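User: What would this chain look like folded?
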Amino acid sequence: MITSSDNARIKQVRGLLTQAKQRRQEQKCVLEGVRLIEDALLAGVQLDFVLYRPDAALKIAPSADLLNRLQSQNIPCLETDPSLFNKLSDTQNPQGVLAVCSFPELTPRQPLSLVLILDGIGDPGNLGSAFRTAGAVGVDLVVLSPDTVDPFNPKVLRGGMGAHFRLPIQQQTWAEIGQLGLPIMIADADGERHIFEVDWTSPVAVVVGNEAHGPSQQARALASQTVRIPMVSAESLNAAMAASVILYEIFRQRHYA
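Assistant: Here's the prediction, encoded as structure tokens.
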């Protein structure tokens, strides 16, 4: 059983959970809970190792079953002192299991038909929720501007509910974004047209910006057109909600119109 906070695996997990720089350098992240680990395995992601709390993981059927399968595949599953595990866990994780894995490498479908560009999103929960919607409607690629929160932040991973392993996600510079080769439509409270007036059946990239500040100047410089979501109230939607509304209108037009 691992009991020391100076253990090399413990130090690695702690760093990956708290430091975006370390995640980028190692190209690795931490998955907490059975659901995320199962999603990674289904996507063919190789796990480096697993830490588990014996007092929790072995008493919960999904966790115990997962550990048995991983051990049969010779993936290191390391029993960890409960108090030490709790200090590592980003949540009060009743399943008592976490894993370290490499970032998934997913290739976007070509030619690109629908790209979601998330511009300066700072809230991890919003980013994760936007990933879930993008996966649900079949977005080909999600692009993050340089100042968007790290997509492998533990809260983003939880909010994404496995979308990271089904959806190509790339962080790009604005110069790279400008080379996508698609018309770029920007969601803006003062947009020229509302989203239900737009023909979304042709290939397009959609920019959703930070809810507090709106789209960045870099995004506006690339815009083919600005669009708005019609609302009765002046209250703005958060980024995840705005992305969901627009993406589902695109999905409706392409599949049910």
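The mean pLDDT is 94. If you want, I can go into more detail on any region.
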